[in-house]
């Protein structure tokens, strides 16, 4: 596939998708968002891809939604733009395959929001996170008010959103915004290592686990446990469950088929 503002490569069963507008610090304009939407659809259907690593080219992950594009928008155009980004990020969040954000630099506004739509965030020690929107006269618009508060709690989310302050990677880890902080040089290897480990497991079980966590966290625990019960039961209709358990008993490595 040819993209103007993205790069896509594959390493075995892992896809590495990068936002590639380094001159604008990978700011998300409509064209880039539409390409991202398209790329996610392609990767979702690609049977050879188990895990996606999302990152940015150059010194930024994503420095936000494109301010030049937003500047002259009317209220309804602003709403539409917010819907476009939020819909794509929700698609990433609920897609079956796991997505790891490898946050290489600035993850601000829409960039922080994009990283939060991913399942796991690994940050370079150079990364910086923030929701600076109120300094531009807007609220976060790609679901940041919702995901930041779910990830770090309402008090910290309100502090970050009301002040617009940036936090460094170590602070982001301390407040639960990122899973792991590594050196700049180790970032891609660490993300790929985790992606390959996930890719070596039974993929249907990984995907059902993602669905159980995502769906369960938005409901009461009784309903969440029901969701888990159903998905746990469904695992027993897969070939990989038989293979995983037989391999354990036969003391060998499993050979999963994603079936
Ligand atoms: N939109 C459009 N262009 C952007 C951009 C953005 N969000 N962020 C950076 N750029 C552009 C700059 O305008 C600059 O372009 P020129 O070279 O043509 O002037 C280029 O990228 C490099 O940026 P800087 O020269 O500013 O780089 P720096 O290293 O001095 O500063 C920065 C880096 C602190 C990230 C600074 O660029 C910055 O503050 N960017 C804006 C961050 C921001 O406010 N993000 C939120 C956007 S609103 C949003 O995202 C809404 C939403 O929730 C949907």
Structure in words:
The protein is an alpha/beta fold. It has 2 domains: 6-199, 2-enoyl-CoA Hydratase, Chain A, domain 1, CATH 3.90.226.10; 201-250, Lyase 2-enoyl-coa Hydratase, Chain  A, domain 2 (Orthogonal Bundle). It is built from 11 helices and 10 strands. 39% of the residues are buried. The model has no long low-confidence stretch (mean pLDDT 98). Acetoacetyl-coenzyme A binds next to helix 2, strand 6 and helix 4.
* Strand-pairing-aware structural class: alpha/beta
What does the overall shape look like?
A: globular
Largest sheet: 6 strands, mixed
Q: What's the level 1 CATH class of the largest domain?
A: Alpha Beta
Query: Which H/E pattern describes the elements?
Result: EEHEEHHEEHEEHHEHEHHHH
How do you describe this structure in short?
Helices cover 49% and strands 17% of the residues. The model has no long low-confidence stretch (mean pLDDT 98).
Question: What tags apply to this protein structure?
Answer:
259 residues, alpha/beta, 2-enoyl-CoA Hydratase, Chain A, domain 1, Lyase 2-enoyl-coa Hydratase, Chain  A, domain 2, 2 domains, four-stranded mixed beta sheet, binds acetoacetyl-coenzyme A
Break the fold down into its secondary structure elements and pairings.
Blueprint: E1 6-11, E2 14-19, H1 30-45, E3 51-56, E4 60-62, H2 67-70, H3 75-94, E5 99-103, E6 106-108, H4 110-117, E7 120-124, E8 128-130, H5 144-152, H6 154-163, E9 166-168, H7 169-174, E10 180-182, H8 187-199, H9 203-217, H10 221-235, H11 239-249
Parallel strand pairs: 2-3, 3-5, 4-6, 5-7, 6-8, 7-10
Antiparallel strand pairs: 1-2, 8-9
Bound molecules: acetoacetyl-coenzyme A.
Acetoacetyl-coenzyme A binds at residues 24-25, 27, 63-68, 85, 106, 108-110, 113, 132-133, 136, 138, 140-142, 144.
């Amino acid at each position: 596939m040819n993209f103007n503002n993205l790069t896509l490569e594959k390493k075995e069963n892992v896809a590495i998708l990068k936002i590639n507008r380094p001159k604008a610090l990978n700011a998300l304009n409509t064209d880039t968002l539409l390409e991202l939407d398209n790329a996610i659809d392609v990767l979702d259907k690609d049977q050879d891809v188990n895990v996606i690593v999302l990152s940015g080219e150059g010194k930024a992950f994503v420095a936000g939604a494109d301010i030049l594009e937003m500047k002259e928008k009317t209220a309804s155009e602003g709403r539409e733009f917010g819907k476009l980004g939020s819909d794509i990020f929700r698609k990433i969040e609920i897609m079956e395959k796991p997505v790891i954000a490898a946050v290489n630099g600035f993850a601000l506004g829409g960039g922080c929001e994009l990283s939060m739509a991913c399942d796991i965030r690994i940050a370079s020690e150079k990364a910086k996170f923030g929701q600076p929107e109120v300094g531009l006269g807007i609220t976060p618009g790609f679901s940041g008010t919702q995901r930041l508060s779910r990830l770090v709690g309402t008090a910290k989310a309100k502090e970050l959103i009301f002040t617009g302050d940036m936090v460094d990677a170590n602070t982001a880890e301390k407040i639960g915004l990122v899973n792991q902080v590594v050196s700049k040089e180790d970032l891609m290897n660490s993300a790929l290592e985790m992606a390959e480990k996930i890719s070596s497991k039974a993929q249907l079980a990984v995907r059902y686990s993602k669905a159980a966590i995502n769906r369960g966290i938005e409901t009461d625990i009784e309903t969440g446990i029901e969701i888990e019960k159903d998905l746990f039961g469904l695992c027993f209709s897969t070939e990989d469950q038989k293979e995983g358990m037989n391999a354990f008993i036969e003391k060998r490595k499993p050979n999963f088929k994603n079936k």
